[in-house]
UniProtKB/TrEMBL annotation:
Ring cyclization and eight-electron oxidation of 3a-(2-amino-2-carboxyethyl)-4,5-dioxo-4,5,6,7,8,9-hexahydroquinoline-7,9-dicarboxylic-acid to PQQ. Keywords: Oxidoreductase, PQQ biosynthesis. It catalyses: 6-(2-amino-2-carboxyethyl)-7,8-dioxo-1,2,3,4,7,8-hexahydroquinoline-2,4-dicarboxylate + 3 O2 = pyrroloquinoline quinone + 2 H2O2 + 2 H2O + H(+). This is Pyrroloquinoline-quinone synthase. InterPro entries: Haem_Oase-like_multi-hlx, PqqC, PqqC-like, Thiaminase-2/PQQC. Pathway: Cofactor biosynthesis; pyrroloquinoline quinone biosynthesis. It holds the Pfam family TENA_THI-4. It comes from Chelativorans salis. SUPFAM superfamilies: Heme oxygenase-like (SSF48613).
Length: 250
């Protein structure tokens, strides 16, 4: 006989969501340990920048997909700031522009990176699956999948310190993406978490929200697995993916 899920208290459900991050967030992946401790080669850093760009560039698209299904103008008004944070404006560069600044700092041609032509197939599939998830699942699940931001400040803090300590390309200008996210993410987290806790008001909805967050951690982990396999060990770069020496600044 299948055991039916039990609705958790608000406090216990939040603790369950946070436990997902403690157990599954990609700060625990071996690639990040290498990156933050200075063990990555210049080409491994470049591969990471190229593949992570695919994810960065699709964040506004997944947020736009969420907004297209949202009937509440208050929610739309609050959520659209996420698009502005990444796309920027005529007066203020956004996260995508800051990521391309990082790409240039590590020696890559920004147009090559922006084309996403050298992205690993597994990265592309993982990112596209995330956009499709947000487009097709319930609004609660779509918003719950964004709650990996709960755990992002910790990894950004480690990344800033590790890059500045170990890599010549790192300075306050080149790593400005991560500095900005330390300021931008808290408001996103506060709203998203409150929304999920308010709207996951049945055991079934709590299960769906927790599964959505788990799915998102799997997306991020799968991207790093592909990166590690292609550029660290054993180094099997699939056809069409970026190869060292390609796409560098002139």
């Amino acid at each position: 006989m299948t055991q039916q899920p039990v609705r958790l208290s608000r406090e216990d459900f939040e603790a369950r969501l946070r436990r997902i991050g403690e157990e599954r967030y990609h700060d625990k992946h071996p690639f990040h340990h290498r990156l933050h401790s200075g063990q990555c080669t210049p080409d491994q850093v470049r591969a990471w920048v190229i593949n992570r760009y695919m994810y960065q560039s699709r964040i506004p698209m997944k947020d736009a997909a969420l907004l297209s299904r949202c009937e509440d103008p208050t929610l739309r008004r609050i959520w659209r700031s996420r698009i502005e944070d990444h796309d920027g404006s005529a007066e203020r560069p956004g996260g995508i522009e800051r990521w391309l600044k990082l790409a240039a700092a590590v020696g890559l041609d920004r147009d090559y990176v922006a084309s996403a032509g050298g992205v690993l197939p597994a990265t592309r599939f993982a990112v596209e699956s995330y956009v499709r998830f947000v487009r097709e699942r319930s609004l609660l699940e779509a918003i719950a999948s964004s709650l990996t931001e709960l755990f992002a400040p910790k990894i950004h803090t480690k990344r800033i310190a590790g890059l500045l300590e170990h890599y010549d390309f790192a300075n306050e200008d080149s790593i400005s993406y991560f500095r900005n996210r330390l300021d931008e993410a808290p408001k996103d987290v506060a709203f998203g978490l409150t929304y999920v806790l308010d709207h996951a008001n049945t055991a079934e909805k709590q299960e769906a929200a927790a599964a959505a967050l788990t799915f998102k951690t799997d997306v991020l982990w799968a991207m790093l697995d592909a990166l590690y396999s292609a550029y660290v060990e054993p180094g099997h770069i699939p056809p069409g993916a970026w190869r060292p020496g390609k796409g560098l600044r002139a």
